[in-house]
C-alpha cells in the first residue's frame, strides 16, 4: 500500500508536485493557506504519513497539531506554531527552502521570471539598459549573469567586501550599498532588490526609473504599504507565477531526493 501524502496550499506549482509524486504516493491536495478546525479534521481523516506545507507559512486559526500518522513534514517558511509542533511531535522535518540544489535551480527560474516581468512591464529591450542589483546571493548572481549576457550594464551593490570583489572578479561594476542610492539621479537606472529586509526609503525610489523588489514579504521598503511609490513593483514568487510546471517539478525533485535518503537510512 502506498504511503499517504497531504499537500497543503494554493500555489500553482502544487498540482505539478502532485503529478510527480502520484507514482510513489497516495497524494491529496488541500487547497487552503489557513489551518482551521475543518482542515485539521480533514487531515486527521486522511491520516497522511507525509505532509507538505506551502512556501509561505500557514495562517494558524486553530491548534496546529499533526496527526500521529505523520512521520515526515516538508516545511517552507517557518512560524512559531509549526516549529513548536515539530519539537512536540518529534516528526522528521525537512526544510526544502534550505536545500541547496533547489535554491540554485529556483534562482535560475527567478532570474528568467524577472526578465519576463521586465519585458511585460517595460515593453523594452534589456540590451544597453543599466541595472543595479542589491544583494549578491544566489538570485543576485543568476540575475547578474543573465542580464550581463543580454547586453545590460550590471552593477552589484552590497555591504560585504567579499561579495563586492567576487562580483568584480566576474566583470561586473560594483558599488557599496550605502552609496548605491545617493549616487543615482539620472532616472535611467533600474534597481533590482534581492535583499530580504527593509532598507530602502520610499523617497529614494525616485532616483531610479523603476524599482523591482524580488525579496519576499515585506520587501525592502522602510515604510508601510500606505506609502508605496508608483515606480515600485514587488515581484514575488516569480517561478510559480510564470513557470508553475517547471517550479513544481523542482519542488518534487527535492521531495523525491529526501524520501530516497530516508528510505536508504532504514
From TrEMBL:
InterPro entries: Ado_hCys_hydrolase_NAD-bd, NAD(P)-bd_dom_sf. This is Dipicolinate synthase subunit A. SUPFAM superfamilies: NAD(P)-binding Rossmann-fold domains. Gene3D superfamilies: NAD(P)-binding Rossmann-like Domain. It comes from the Bacteria. Pfam families: AdoHcyase_NAD. Residues 113-184 form the S-adenosyl-L-homocysteine hydrolase NAD binding domain.
Amino acid at each position: 500500500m502506498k504511503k499517504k501524502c497531504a499537500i497543503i496550499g494554493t500555489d500553482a506549482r502544487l498540482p505539478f508536485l502532485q503529478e510527480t509524486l502520484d507514482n510513489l504516493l497516495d497524494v491529496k491536495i488541500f487547497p487552503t493557506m489557513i489551518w482551521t478546525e475543518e482542515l485539521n479534521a480533514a487531515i486527521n481523516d486522511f491520516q497522511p504519513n507525509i505532509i507538505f506545507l506551502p512556501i509561505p507559512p500557514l495562517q494558524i486559526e486553530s491548534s496546529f497539531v499533526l496527526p500521529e500518522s505523520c512521520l515526515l513534514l516538508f516545511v517552507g517558511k517557518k512560524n512559531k506554531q509549526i516549529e513548536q509542533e515539530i519539537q512536540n511531535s518529534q516528526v522528521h522535518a525537512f526544510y526544502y527552502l534550505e536545500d541547496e540544489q533547489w535554491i540554485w535551480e529556483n534562482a535560475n527560474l527567478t532570474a528568467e521570471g524577472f526578465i519576463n516581468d521586465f519585458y511585460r512591464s517595460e515593453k523594452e529591450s534589456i540590451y544597453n539598459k543599466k541595472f543595479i542589483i542589491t544583494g549578491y546571493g544566489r538570485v543576485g548572481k543568476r540575475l547578474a549573469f543573465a542580464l550581463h549576457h543580454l547586453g545590460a550594464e550590471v552593477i552589484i551593490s552590497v555591504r560585504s567586501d567579499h561579495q563586492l570583489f567576487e562580483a568584480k572578479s566576474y566583470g561586473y561594476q560594483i558599488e557599496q550599498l550605502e552609496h548605491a542610492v545617493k549616487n543615482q539621479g539620472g532616472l535611467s537606472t533600474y534597481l533590482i532588490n534581492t535583499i530580504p529586509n527593509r532598507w530602502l526609503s520610499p523617497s529614494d525610489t525616485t532616483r531610479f526609473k523603476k524599482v523591482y523588489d524580488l525579496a519576499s514579504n515585506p520587501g525592502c521598503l522602510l515604510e508601510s504599504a500606505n506609502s508605496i511609490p508608483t515606480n515600485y513593483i514587488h515581484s514575488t514568487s516569480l517561478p510559480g507565477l510564470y513557470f508553475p510546471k517547471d517550479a513544481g517539478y523542482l519542488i518534487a525533485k527535492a521531495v523525491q531526493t529526501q524520501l530516497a535518503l530516508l528510505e536508504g537510512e532504514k
